[in-house]
């Protein structure tokens, strides 16, 4: 520890601290532009120059290490003179366009110029003009305003993992740019808007939409991935205009993924369902709430009476709040049916009934940085959970060794030491080898229920993973969405659990959606013999309650979902959006509030229940989903639907404490794996980053990104040759009755004999299951 | 995109650096690429970057930072004259003026026949030889009298 | 090339750069002695300290002391770098050393590598002297073939790999950390220090960087002993030094003389003033050093201490001589343009300030100056100096301050009369194309 005096105040700081760290500790503000606590130190803007005893010239606080007994003055005459000098240089070429600049009101340069700038300029020469760059649909540029702090450059390189921006040319001609005519395509790109201390990089969707001081700032929680990033939602006249990160070091730090940041555009989509609608004689008509609710209630009552309560099933999206999921299952159970589920994209439910608790990450998110070994199984980590991937990326810089088993090696922009590429049907044999090798490494016996299945021969790849895990001190094994959505999810789970046990590490499930943990806690799963999401579709029900789910895009098997729902005499859809598929399947559409227009709770992957409030009034006649479910309960005269507010529902749904009933272990389940050789091609499905849920699918700017235009189908060169096509050719994909014609491109990171086909996409909505056999023919 | 010979030269440069530091060869690689192609179009920079496993923008940073790389097409012969103070004191500016007059172009221009481009250079570290000019980046001509300039231009004309 | 002294003694232009001639001049005897006598590294560093050799690149930092900063027992790779990125206007000595006597640099670096335990080195050569880079590569090949470089040098256990790396047109790479960045294949933007290269240098490993002439002096120090070298010069200013004389003299060129030689003698060696004209001003240590009036300069001796006392710096030993036909405003305008063009763009004061300085000097030169401009220039330079990561900001400022200080009346005349004190035709005549006698 080091003693230092700053502006006359004593402070003790850790060895290796900078003057900036020490100043921050005592709350002394040192003006700065290029310094950012999460980025490497550039020390180039020179705004943070301070006076240091015995130093002949002022030193940058951001880069100068503290020495014991150092005396520093941040506001002495020498310091302020230096700071004012730098400010003058920053302003001489900065345009005087503050009145039309989106950064106005939240501009670091503007703010600091008030304190350090002169009232008149001594620079009378012409100011520099820098051409704007097209960085893509999300980030707007006004490069003449750029002060070359290089925060954006360092962000893309260090945090996002790929240098997409640089500072080209030199001296006064230096300018920030992507490689000639390239765009910034990172799924974290929006953060450079926040980082830019001036108005050089601003939000394209937000451009000229409002002045920042007109906006109300309200806290919220992201409804997308399983991280549950904390948000500041900015609202003007009840319209969400912008979303910014709410700093939470334990979850999203100071970052947001582009999905979290820009999906708000979908809230204002033309697809919003704003009035209850009823299908009468095949024609959709707007109606009032009372008519719609009575229609729904009567329909359910009638179905239960005629076909028994078991003929009714409820299906909800995992992007739905705890309150809504809880009341949905309570309502369904009150009718007398146990058939309720929120795991719409899963196809293997054999572990139900053997679970210790709700599947979760198995560790707090902020402990990822302390890991030294990680084995990720079946995950599109970077696109599914961008900020979790970012944490892993930072940990990898500090020595975390990452191993991965995947069916398609998505580029994670971090070093993956051991990678096994295998078809999903081969995951289990590979994992059995890892179990065997790891047990040998550790000198520990394999668990009894698995011992018989463990092979004696072990591949080099499996051994390398085992050795990596065996040499770790803080180990974790994670299952990604592809693993959880697999037909072999149960065996994969059993083996991953065993690997974690042998490696003495944490075992976790990354989780697909904002409430993948919360759905379990809200009991939105069959508990006493009811049907799960798959069974409800395979054994068609007479009536369905559909909550925030679209039949063509949110299910593991969209062909099956559309068929089952389409054939059902009664489908009641509670949704914030309308769509052709909903019009086709449903009989009544009840407009419910998206996360910005109601209160609720999401439980993120680390089991943290995060509450949010409405930030805007519901659009049109939209009502909170939990209220609609409560009223339906009232209409059917069920007990226990008297809650006055969402808090009361949440309290009822969640036991006290943050982390009730979490647990990944499977108890008493036999290991039954029949290794059957796969003939034909095996489908590998990703859920594209901007296709995962109804809200993001309707965010226009995100839909213009490169990620949204990713190829629908891909396979490696050998597979393409076997199909008999070149990269870029059109092929006919067939699963059961469903036939889709799409373009296929070569991608050598796709495992042998596999075809990677995007799910949750209009082009593939006619197809069958996300995993299993698929036929591919040249057109 | 580059000839086998150029690639071999680049490989020799890569071998000068530790195996995990291929990027160190970027300056040589860009130089070799420019010698073969005359200038550095963006596709060429991108090619060099991927050959060295570095981001394209990082290679572009280098190509745009060092001023002997040409990001725009130049004539068959690029002549760079130093006009910095020590050279100017010994006639660097006069030599440049003479070249402008002979070639009928100003600095940063190319003759209509595409043969010559004239550039103003910064210190080449050869002030004792002033006036100094650099032909095609790599050949330095010292004590450039008008007669010598005439002679060199005539030689280059035929190349 | 005109030479006496050590490094360039006995060399005959382009004809005698090769290994055979170098050996004939006694080359590689220092290295052989070290290897055969197994001289301990500490002894070599002690000799360097005794020689009082100061870095010849411009800063004049004691070389022996610099070598002693290298961590002895560092477990990984350690690097050596030679700074031959000579681009400071007025400086052209390293080019002559490298093209006429490259092996002395190779030998000096090899000895340095031995003394500091470096396994690998790079000589960073200014891009514009590409032919010299090619010659150095040829010399390296000769040395490797002769077992003087590479694995198991001269049959010993000592190995050292040395390579040439060329610049491609950036003055800033003469700054040692910019040079390291450049070797790493990046833009030459200087690093903030600390950490210093001795702890975090090339590829993040301990690295020592010295100037070409510094390394070239090392074999002579080993051969004649530290004290012998020191005695060639004067106390605290050991040895001989190359001075690059340019500008209005009859014989511009390099002159290797003992430290402490009077400037008047150096001027005489360079053939005196061209056309017999009157000496007006001298920049004694490369364009970044403050300009001195001719009369002050005539009283100086050529060593670090004397020039420093006169208010300037010996720097790299680049002596720019200007006679009475020189317009000091135009001279400063050209230098200011140079720093404006060469600023790397990293630090705000230098990126924005060098252009501002140039534009103000430019408008004074073009008859658009204002009364308050000289105060403005002094104020702007004051805001640049000492406020940047590297010394380029200072280098851009010092000429401005010193030109105004010593030749302020010329600037005032320009501002008031919208023209130069020296008639254009006189200026024109004075800077005619130089013809070698």
From TrEMBL, chain A:
Catalysed reactions listed for this entry: a quinone + NADH + 5 H(+)(in) = a quinol + NAD(+) + 4 H(+)(out)
Coiled coil: none
Entry-linked Gene3D superfamilies: 3.10.20.740, 3.30.70.20, 3.40.50.740, Dimethylsulfoxide Reductase, domain 2
Pfam families from the UniProt entry: Fer2_4, Fer4_NDSU1, Fer4_Nqo3, Molybdopterin, NADH-G_4Fe-4S_3
GO molecular function: oxidoreductase activity
EC top class, as a word: translocase
Domain 4Fe-4S Mo/W bis-MGD-type: 215-271
InterPro entries per the UniProt record, alphabetical: 2Fe-2S_ferredoxin-like_sf (IPR036010), 2Fe-2S_ferredoxin-type (IPR001041), Mopterin_OxRdtase (IPR006656), Mopterin_OxRdtase_4Fe-4S_dom (IPR006963), NADH_UbQ_OxRdtase_75kDa_su_CS (IPR000283), NADH_UbQ_OxRdtase_ferredoxin (IPR054351), NADH_UbQ_OxRdtase_Gsu (IPR010228), NADH_UbQ_OxRdtase_Gsu_4Fe4S-bd (IPR019574)
CDD domains per UniProt: fer2, MopB_NDH-1_NuoG2
Domain (4Fe-4S His(Cys)3-ligated-type) ranges: 78-117
Required cofactor(s): [4Fe-4S] cluster; [2Fe-2S] cluster
Highest taxon above the source species: Bacteria
Co-factor: note: Binds 1 [2Fe-2S] cluster per subunit.
PANTHER family: NADH-UBIQUINONE OXIDOREDUCTASE 75 KDA SUBUNIT, MITOCHONDRIAL, RESPIRATORY NITRATE REDUCTASE
Job description of the protein: NDH-1 shuttles electrons from NADH, via FMN and iron-sulfur (Fe-S) centers, to quinones in the respiratory chain. Couples the redox reaction to proton translocation (for every two electrons transferred, four hydrogen ions are translocated across the cytoplasmic membrane), and thus conserves the redox energy in a proton gradient.
Family classification: Belongs to the complex I 75 kDa subunit family.
The name this protein goes by in its record: NADH-quinone oxidoreductase
Organism per entry: Aromatoleum toluvorans
Automatic annotation (TrEMBL), chain B:
UniProt key word Metal-binding: yes
Keyword Iron: yes
Keyword terms: 2Fe-2S, Iron, Iron-sulfur, Metal-binding, Oxidoreductase
EC number annotated for this UniProt entry: 1.6.5.11
Any Pfam family hit: 2Fe-2S_thioredx
Cofactor dependence: [2Fe-2S] cluster
InterPro entries documented for this protein: NuoE-like, NuoE_dom, NuoE_N, Thioredoxin-like_sf
GO molecular function: oxidoreductase activity
Enzyme class (EC, first level): oxidoreductase
Family assignment from sequence similarity: Belongs to the complex I 24 kDa subunit family.
Protein name: NADH-quinone oxidoreductase subunit NuoE
Organism: Aromatoleum toluvorans
Lineage: Bacteria, Pseudomonadati, Pseudomonadota, Betaproteobacteria, Rhodocyclales
